Amino acid sequence: MISTLRDSLRQDAGIAEFASESIVIIDLEGSIRYWNPAAERLFGWPGLAVGGAPVADISAAPEDEVRAWSQLLQEGVWEGQIRRLTRDGEVRVVEARRRLRHDEAGIPCDVVEYAHLAQGANGEEIPDRSAPDVAMAASWEIDLTSAAEILDRIRSQSRTSGGDDRGDLCRRLLEAARIVDVNERTARLVGGNRGRELMKGQSVASFWPVASRAILAELIVQAFLDSEGKRFHRWLASDGILREPLVTIWRAGADRPGHLFITVNGTADDDRSYLFLRASEARYRKLVHYMPVALWQVDASHMGKIYADLRSRGVTDFGKYLDDHPELVGLAASSVPVTDVNRSAIELMGGKDAQDLIGPAGYLFTESPECLRRVMIGRFSGDRNYSELMKLRTLDGRVLDVRFSVTYPEPLVELDTTIFSLEDMTERLQMETQLRQIQADFSHAARIATLGELTSSIAHEVNQPLAAIMTNAETSLRWLARAEPDIGKVRQLTARIAASARRADNIVQRIRSMAIKQSPDPVTLELNEVVRESLLFVQNEIEQRGIRVTTTYSRDLPTVVGDRIQLQQVIVNLIINAVHAVEGLDETEREILVVTGVEGGSATFTLKDNGPGIAPEHLGRIFDGFFTTKPQGMGIGLAICQSIVTAHGGAVSASNRTGGGAQFRVTLPRARSLT
Amino acid sequence: MPTIAIVDDDEAVREALGDLLMVSGLACQCFESAPAFLTALRSRRFDCLVTDIRMPEMTGIELIEKLHEEHAQLPVVVLSSVLDDATRTKALALGASAWLGKPVTDEHLLDAIATAMENSDPGTAR
Question: Alpha-carbon distance A59 to B41, whole Å?
Answer without folding.
Answer: 133
